[in-house]
Amino acid sequence: MAFDPCILQETNADNRRDTLSAHVIVAPFTFGGHIIPAIRLAEALASSKHYLHITFVLPQHLTPSDDHAHASAPFDQLLQSLQQNHPNVRLLGLPEESNGVITSVRHAFTHPESMQQPLEKLIGEIIAKARPESPKVPVCIISDMLMSWTQDVANKYGIPRYVIYPGLAVSMAWVLYLPILQAHRGLPLKSAKEFDTEEDFITVPGLPPSHRREWNTLLLDTFPRSAQEVYVKNCLRTHEASGILVDTFEELESAAISALETATINPKKVPIYAVGPLLEATHSDQPDLRPADANCLRWLDNQPPSSVVYVCFGSAYDPTETQIQELALGLQHSDQLFLWVLRPGPGRTTGTDLSSFLPEEFLSRTHKQGLVLFDWAPQHLILSHPSIGAFFSHCGYNSMLETITMGLPVIGFPQFADHHLNCKLLVEELGMGVEACRRESDGLLERREVERTVRLAMVKSEQRMSMRRKAKEWRDMALKAVTRMKAEVTEKNRESSKRSLESFIEDMLHTI
Predict the structure, then answer these.
(1) CA 57 from centre of chain
(2) Which CATH class is domain 169-278?
(3) pTM to 2 decimal places
(4) Domain extent listing, the chain
């Protein structure tokens, strides 16, 4: 999709341009786990009673093609649906360097910066093309925490920048606390294992002590230093934002949300809005499914209710051959039905065939027991299918929220970043799952542990019933939060809904 700011001047199908309240630029970080919640936020904003014009910007290589059957990423169809169902939304691919090829971990963090000049040009065009006979349409930027360079763009034009954070409020508390942590403890944090000494715990004000095994791995000495420096810079600049939108809700994290507003963590009193859970909207005219996706759902249609464990560890997981074999044999020996998404992570060449890593004749031995997909899968549709009984997950934040809102027990296999903290919340605090424990010596998840945890989540027992009951309770609370989030803000309920999406929109319109 070519860069053409003039596309923004097209008349929308419902011809409501005269009622525009604001023009909002949404700029997500360019990983799937960050793009998906940004899409859902854009959809929620576009559906607001305030007629907001939304421009959703991505690098050109990530803008979807018109061929639904060859969608290249799990968010392609979400983007297509966003634009098709909301005439006040435009997708725009901005020029970038190196054709989107990520060459290192540090490059993954810095690559989006190549969009800075095109984004500056875009906003300049929007402001310049505002009609002189009417009030200038105001502009603000909503960008991912990892896109701190957009703060410079916002400063250049004197417009507000709001941060969207696709994670727990407790994780955001760590982000805001980082200046103090850096000054008093230093970075990187040491990953060496001690014996529960004082050095093994960090206490963020207002939150329980956090053990070393729960710390964000992007802050540890095992993470590439150059990439860590970029990550920390992004975190520190969050304090400059006009507001922070966190994809969580009060019932889930009331203490953490309150902690975010304390002077110690948030000395500049940046407004905090708990706008979650941001869920995928359902439309009757969603894009057609790819044939592979339709086949997958047909397979689920033929399975008994709550009988299948869905196995998927996110787009950034890059399993070794040994780990793939252990997972495969553990699933087979569990004697439970499974749907396993097994695709190469970013460390492998696109199109790498992981089927050769499976145990010999595994697919033929398990053809009645399971289905293995070697490409993207429609996760939202899979998790909402009545045949799914549990989710074997890396506990990435999107997957975590989908687990909660679908009311499914989880088997946690956390990988990096904030996954361990997410897993702890699901398993220990919410009581709706079990963590699969790795081998201490090398981090391998052995087949016996896979078998044990899958059976624990799927085979009828008192513990399984407890997990399912807790999962349903949290699902109900999450859905109530969605209803409240969309409620109209009045003087009577402003205090109780001060962190809602509608309250954010009201505050944003007053700010700009």
Answers:
(1) 17
(2) alpha beta
(3) 0.88
(4) 19-167, 169-278, 291-459
